Fold this sequence. Notes:
Layout: E1 2-4, E2 11-17, H1 30-38, E3 41-47, E4 60-61, E5 71-72, H2 74-82, E6 91-100, H3 103-110, E7 114-118, H4 127-132, E8 136-139, H5 149-160, E9 193-194, E10 197-198, H6 208-226, H7 228-243
Helix pairs in contact: 3-5, 6-7
Amino acid sequence: MSGTKISGTKWQATILTLFPDMFPGPLGHSLAGKSLNEGIWGLKTLDIREFARDKHRTVDDTPLGGGLGMVLKPDVVDAALQAVTATAGPRIYLSPRGKMLDQAMARDLAAQPGAVFLCGRYEGVDQRVIDAHAMQEVSIGDYILSGGEVAALTVIDAVVRLLPGVMGKAEGHHDESFETGLLEHSHFTQPRVWNGIEAPEILASGHHRKIAEWRLAEAKKETQTRRPDLWKRYLELQSKSSKE
Length: 244
């Protein structure tokens, strides 16, 4: 077992992977890295290959029924999962067949004491061990990656930034994309005029209520234009809320 573990951490990420050196990767930098060093969250990695049962440290085999590629063996993966039975939190298998990661899922995971992430490789993991451990399958999008490590990094980053003390004031999350059901409004900074293009005049007015109204209108416009699916869901939620 390797990785970073600081006594008293509030949220613990445990990674089962064939490539432990991929962690913390980008999570060792910026706010995630700072909060990792401060003990706001912790990281452990387990090398799945350490649980292989033969002298060649074999972790995979050909698919039953034939076909291309290799499949991670259930006995090896089960042994790795058994090694973390005392670790609190859901067991997550990163899979393109899983439930799509969204902000609501990130919030739910942030409310847990942590999570165990199983990173598949090759064609995937024997389904029997996934079922035996009642693993929650999670996808980060409709595309194929070489393994679950990058997906695990993505999920952890989405969760860590929600932990208390990582980003400062909690209200800083409120207006971000997906937190309100809308995409975020456009952002502007100094200089007021850049390359002959002036930032929206309202933002320099000092009128906070009107600025908030402008930002909300912009968020609605951007969502309606860029993500009609989100816009439809937003309208449905607004309609449901008004009836309650």
